[in-house]
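User: Here's a chain of 228 residues. Predict its fold as tokens.
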Amino acid sequence: MAATTLSPARALRQPRHLDWRSIFGVFLLLVATGGSLAFWTVSSDTRAVVVATRDLPAGATLSATDLAVARVRVDDTIYHASLPADELTTIVGKQLAEPVHAHQLLVRPQLSNRPVLAPNQLALTIAISPETAVGGRLRPGDAVQVLVTTNKGKPEARSSVVLPRVTVYDVGYDQRVTVVNTDVADRPATQGPAKWLTLIVTSEQALQLAQARHSGELDVALLPPEQP
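Assistant: Prediction complete.
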């Protein structure tokens, strides 16, 4: 039977122990990595949209303090209906067509496409028909010229310019009812021809337009955009 010689170095070797500090450090690293991955997954699944910061009534002009960006998790249908965060700067200065509430997602139909009235401007409505207003193909923001014809059908008939250039504020259409059955509530309304036109005018232009409206027949001509 062979005997093993015990050297001094072997006799002094310490028994091996687990380094709990290293194990705990590796554990913390794994937890941090897992948390980062979870946060990245949640963040990548959200989308940035525009929300209102406070309650606002219809007709309010949006300022930068009225809007904020929030990250939300919504499906494609809701996201496409809402206003994305990259349109935030283009929304400032527009008017609301409908009221909104604080922290509510803004959707496109809530924004009015009508121009904003300046403090010295009025909105005045005149009756039109497709024959007197470019076939009724007018939109808010269009530049138009208003003419009046007096003594129409007579030898002394004269036409003149009432307003050389004004902006369309809104267009109204005749609402026709399509009969589906005998229940009035089930009769959907369809858009008919243009019926009235609201223009942005000054106080002086409003007087001129009102006088012309009662003294003759009005025609509205579409103008090209102003050159910068």
